[in-house]
Amino acid sequence: GATECTKCAAGTFIGTEGGTECTQCSAGSYSAEAATVCTKCSAGTVSADKGATECTKCAAGTFIGTEGGTECTQCSAGSYSAEAATACTKCKVQLSAQSVPPALSLVQKEVRALEPLVQIKVQLSAQSAPPALSLVQKEVRSVRSVALVPIAP
């Protein structure tokens, strides 16, 4: 017979005392050497294959929100994540020269010079209306009693 017990290698376990065979950890879990159980990968990490000795962090731009995962999920368009994320974060609206109609900068200059009680009508596309309107509203606040009315396209 045996003179001593053999430890199970990392990535495997033996679940019963006196057991004779080590079993690989299932995908989504891992173990260290001499384990009696496998440990599920924590949220934000995965193990795609059986017999893992550690879990891998989800790459930036991907996530997994549950433990025991085998595959990270890509963040949807308009969202992002850091490495080992458990969820993606929606991008905040940020304006760029491409997203604001060029005429907006002219409107901003004109708003500053307007007399009180003047009504401005700005026609905006459905896509640029909310961010552009917000910008114009900020400029309007600096001019007394000016009303801003968007026109439907």
The count of β-strands is: 12
The averaged pLDDT comes out at 79
Rg value? 30 Å
List segments where confidence is low: pLDDT < 50 over at least 5 consecutive residues. Answer: 115-124, 143-147
Order of helices and strands: EEEEEEEEEEHEHE
Percentage beta strand: 15-25%
Structural class: alpha+beta
Strand order within the widest sheet?
Answer: 1-2
Shape: rod-shaped
Question: What are the SSEs and their pairings?
Answer:
Elements lengths: L11 E2 L9 E2 L4 E2 L8 E2 L4 E2 L9 E2 L4 E2 L9 E2 L4 E2 L8 E2 L12 H11 L5 E5 L5 H13 L5 E5 L2
Parallel strand pairs: 11-12
Antiparallel strand pairs: 1-2, 3-4, 5-6, 7-8, 9-10
Helix pairs in contact: 1-2
Describe the protein:
By secondary structure, the chain is an alpha+beta fold. Helices cover 16% and strands 20% of the residues. It has two helices and twelve strands; from the N terminus they run E-E-E-E-E-E-E-E-E-E-H-E-H-E. The protein has helices at residues 103-113, 129-141, and strands at residues 12-13, 23-24, 29-30, 39-40, 45-46, 56-57, 62-63, 73-74, 79-80, 89-90, 119-123, 147-151. A two-stranded antiparallel ribbon has the order 1-2. Strands 3-4 form a two-stranded antiparallel ribbon. Strands 5-6 form a two-stranded antiparallel sheet. A hairpin with an 8-residue loop joins strand 3 and strand 4. Helix 1 (103-113) packs parallel to helix 2. It is rod-shaped, with a radius of gyration of 30 Å.
